[in-house]
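ARCHIVE CARD
Drawer: 12
Card no.: 0347
Subject: one protein chain, sequence and derived structure
Cross-reference: see card 0346
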Amino acid sequence: MIELIIITLIWLIFASIEDLKTREVSDWLSYSLIIIALFFNLYETIIKKDFSFILGSLFGGLIFFLIGNLMYYTRQWGGGDVKLLTGLGTLFYVYPKELLNYFSPNLEFPFLMIILINIIIFGSLYSLIYIFYLALRNKEKINFKINKLILIISIVIASSSFFINDLMLKLLILFLSLIILVYPHLKQFISVVENNLMIKKISLDKLTEGEWVIEDIYHKNKLIYNKNNPGITNQEITLLKKLKIKYVTIKMGMPFIPSFLIAFVISLIFGNLLRI
């Protein structure tokens, strides 16, 4: 099992580098991870005559495949993310017991759930950091203004805490004023960054499978591509080339695989971070 952990870490590192450079992940990385997982668990099933290995592997892969596709069809993830997540589920449907000699993780939840929880936590943090990184690199393109009305409301609410003696209630009011100030501005900021930096018009030669085309494409008044599709296919790209479509508008996805790597390492070392 230690060997599988090392292989998975190497694969995730390579996938993260490729995702950061090209915003794509080669299929061979994901498919080979799934094949390795199935081969290993089938071998364990035969040697130990215990079907729980292969059945658990198939179950974990199926669960992560379904969750990944839910994220894909709601345009949260790309196809490469789904395949790599499926590989993780196929490999680690239970926590590797060998690591208990080195770490004391919180395993009060099933390990598949722990990985998902940590992906959500660190995926969210990673996404925010990436958005701010993009904004800093392209600050001349960002036109963001603070909403004065929201600022005044939050200041008024925060000021009311000075008339309250109860410490917990005072902290609750301050926290509420902070949420009122931060949430709408953060939502607006993300929207501004996406619209200015992540939506681009590219030539058809640069279009690759899985890209999110955000416009309906017509040819002779006939709809040939629906913008509600989760991602364009190679067949659709070939059709657009035959029809001599030159440019399309896409929304660039962020390289999300590094958050998988972070979440996987945290899951192995600490387990569930949301202790109950």
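Annotation on reverse: The chain has a mean pLDDT of 89. Residues 137-197 form one domain.
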